[in-house]
Amino acid sequence: MKIDTCCPPFSTGSLRPARALAFIVLSGTFCWGFLCGLPCRAQTGAQPHATVTQDGNSVIVKTATDVLRLTVCGPTAIHVVASPDGKAADATPQRPWILSPCSPAKFTFSLPSPSQNPPGARRRGGPPVATLDTGALRVEIGLNSGSLDFKTEQGAQLLEEFPYPARIYEPVTANGEALYRVTDSFHPQVREGLYGLGQHQNGVFNYRGTTVELAQANTDVAIPLLVSTQGYGIFWNTPAKSYFDNRFATEMNLSAEAAHAIDYYFFYGPEIDGVIHQYRALTGHAPLFGEWAYGFVQSKDRYKSSDELLKIAGEYRSQHVPLDLLVQDWFWWARQGDPEFNPSYPDVPGTLAKLHDEHIHTMISVWPVLSPQSNNYRAMLAKGYIIPGTTDYDATNPAAGDFYWNNLVGKLFAQGWDAFWLDSSEPEGAGGFSTNGVLADKKLFLGNGALYTNIFPFEHTGNVYRHWRDTTDRKRVLLLTRSGFAGQQRNAAITWSGDIYSTYLSFTRQIPAGLNFALSGMPYWTTDIAGYGPPYARDTEDPAYQKLYVRWFEFGVFCPILRTHGHRSNDQNELFSYGPQTPTLIAYDKLRYRLLPYTYSLAWKVTSEDGTIMRPLVMDWRTDEKVWNIGDQFMFGPSILVNPVTEEDATSRWLYLPPAAAWYDFWTGKKLTGDQRIEADAPLDRIPLYVKAGSILPLGPEVEYAGEKPDAPLDLRVYRGADGSFNLYEDAGDTYDYEKGQHSLIPIRWDDASHTLTIGAREGQFPGMQPERTFRLVLVSDNHGVGGEESANFDREIRYDGGEVSVTVP
């Protein structure tokens, strides 16, 4: 062994002992300088001990411990698979979450020539390397170790594997099958933020310095996509129970408890939107919900009869409070797992017809767990459709999925329900709440539960989505589910954050949880506003709880889906249940509906461009380190900066205005400069909102349900100080005719220098489209064009017949 004398004095606390030992044994050189960001000299005369060759559309790397295959899927996407003997093509035999497998793309491959890289030369003055070049990415492959170094085409460092064995395979036996516990170790950059990985309840936004377990549980959702401020993403391509570990600043480990191989995709954006686009291109794009789904969802645990559903709907309509979706939670059934209702629901189709007459859609809770007393359970058990050791149907079995639809969900759908709440989709273990990776020791139709631990919610929502789409294209799918996995966005599924507590601490933690879910490529997320409750159920007449509810509702208005749900000690949860705070809640509900033209257009961008509605600041200011740890502010679309208030009894909060030409206070019209911290006023009835200069914000009329006034004028609020544009999307509001091109876009532009607004020629059409529209231009300034109410004064009224029109204002 030779100690490299270029390294700084050794401290035993600077290197994990197992890693140090592996490095000494396998390299024969002891160096810890890389931990401090310093290069180490090679041992004189060191010879390469990895072979790298091109094999058609791939590059093969053979080392003393494994065989690695790199497949280029495009200029900015590379699939990496490595196993001890090279025989495994992927981590798992089946990969149903992958919709569009990697199509090999062009690249150049080169080995070092003696003159370019003589023996003993190293990367950064280090070991010899082979190079894979896609035209946008370079991967340098160390010939001494077989480690990978991902760089931009210009040579900027993105992510580097450990130079000693980065890839570790520990033999394990899982459910009788010989597999590996696999780990891949990387050096993150000293200054780098890491995000995504699904939804977790630790209150952490930037995962630097933390450990995250990826195993489905009530309130904790495993999505194995990691994104970085360096501009890359890693999709850890396995549903096995996995871990992200960055406890040591210079070491980032990704591991899976059971696998045939290390398997991941490396994406390069560099913007996070670009990474998410590639993730969705691989795993599926998100369809569009009906316009009504972006309104207000009223729910509680639980409504107990048809009469109660009709009563609640009547109360909203009689008081002219906006509502689009009413939810029937659990225990509606006579036997869980059968479609028959208990006697409190004597005429379900008749009840739904009455609600539809009032323009109210309905959602019903359906579980994957079946009562052993139910007819469907007994039939599915006899057919082998139940997961052994559980009372859950096996969602990975297509025949079981057919039975589940034909004998339960499909029969409910035929009654007229508009949406399904697929609760307990981790799935929940026997006895409830024991849901942490509950399938790991089970046998599934798809295979070993240890390999497919996290896959159930994807398969469950996929079963319902596919059968619904096969049944009709006249009603868009809408599913609500408590868990999720990669690819689930293509199943028209909304994930909510589970059975959380009704406390300020829980509220505070929902914000970074939702933001990381968005950074995991999942566009639709919501919470139980003000918490689910048990074991700490709250009373809607308690003034302290009323205040928490207001703060949480203000935040909920700017989530992709606005939904209230929970168990309250006095069995109420409607907006009318919160005493003196009811007027504030109704005002925010109305604001949500005024924003529908904006929100529905953003939803179209989710579907058509792989956009993201709820945008952590790191998405739009990735290189600004000031936003890397801000997990309690976000953009709602491109224009609105949302700053929830999570401190009890607070009347102000500090926030950061990112760099921009200017920002406008939504409530006052006051203009502020960007790149500064400010203390914003935040009385109980006001969430601090700021709109970026250059924004065009379309606001609709006051309505009681989506689509009520299709011919009403739209306000166009223009926030001056920069050029801006917005594409206003419209369609019939439901059906899948939009997939056939039946929709329209109206491009709107603001030229700040000439003070000119141009409404471009309409693109496309659809049945029921209004041929003429009225737009009211409002140039926002102090106390002009502010707040949630319709503008009494506007700067110009514009008649629009579908052709381009421009107006110039002073």
DSSP, total strands: 44
Q: Outline, from the CA principal axes? A: globular
Relative helix content: 10-25%
Q: How many distinct helices?
A: 12
Low-confidence stretches: 1-46, 118-124
Radius of gyration, whole Å: 28 Å
The whole-number mean of residue pLDDT values reads 93
Characterize the main sheet.
10 strands, antiparallel
Short description:
The protein is of the alpha+beta class and 810 residues long. The chain has twelve helices and 44 strands.
What does this structure look like?
This protein has 810 residues and is α+β, with helices and mostly antiparallel strands. 19% of the residues lie in helices and 27% in strands. It is built from twelve helices and 44 strands. Strands 7, 8, 9, 10, 11, 12, 13, 15, 18 and 19 form a ten-stranded antiparallel β-sheet that branches. An eight-stranded antiparallel β-sheet has the order 3-4-5-6-20-17-16-14. A hairpin with a 2-residue loop joins strand 12 (167-174) and strand 13. The radius of gyration is 28 Å and the shape is globular. It starts with a strand and ends with a strand. Residues 1-46 and 118-124 have low confidence and may be disordered.
How do the strands and helices of this protein lay out in sequence?
Layout: E1 2-3, H1 17-27, E2 29-30, E3 51-55, E4 58-62, E5 67-74, E6 77-83, E7 108-110, E8 129-133, E9 137-142, E10 148-152, E11 157-161, E12 167-174, E13 177-187, E14 194-199, E15 211-214, E16 221-228, E17 232-236, E18 242-245, E19 252-259, E20 262-268, H2 272-283, E21 296-298, H3 306-318, E22 325-328, H4 348-357, E23 361-366, H5 375-383, H6 398-415, E24 419-422, H7 456-471, E25 479-481, E26 493-496, H8 504-519, E27 525-526, H9 543-556, E28 562-564, H10 582-594, H11 596-609, E29 614-616, H12 617-620, E30 634-636, E31 640-642, E32 652-657, E33 663-665, E34 671-672, E35 676-681, E36 689-692, E37 696-699, E38 714-718, E39 724-730, E40 744-751, E41 756-759, E42 773-779, E43 796-800, E44 805-808
Parallel strand pairs: 1-2, 21-22, 21-28, 22-23, 23-24, 24-25, 25-26, 26-27, 38-42
Antiparallel strand pairs: 3-4, 4-5, 5-6, 6-20, 7-8, 8-9, 9-10, 10-11, 11-13, 12-13, 13-19, 14-16, 15-18, 16-17, 17-20, 18-19, 29-30, 30-31, 31-36, 32-35, 33-34, 33-36, 37-38, 39-40, 40-41, 41-44, 42-43
Helix pairs in contact: 3-4, 6-7
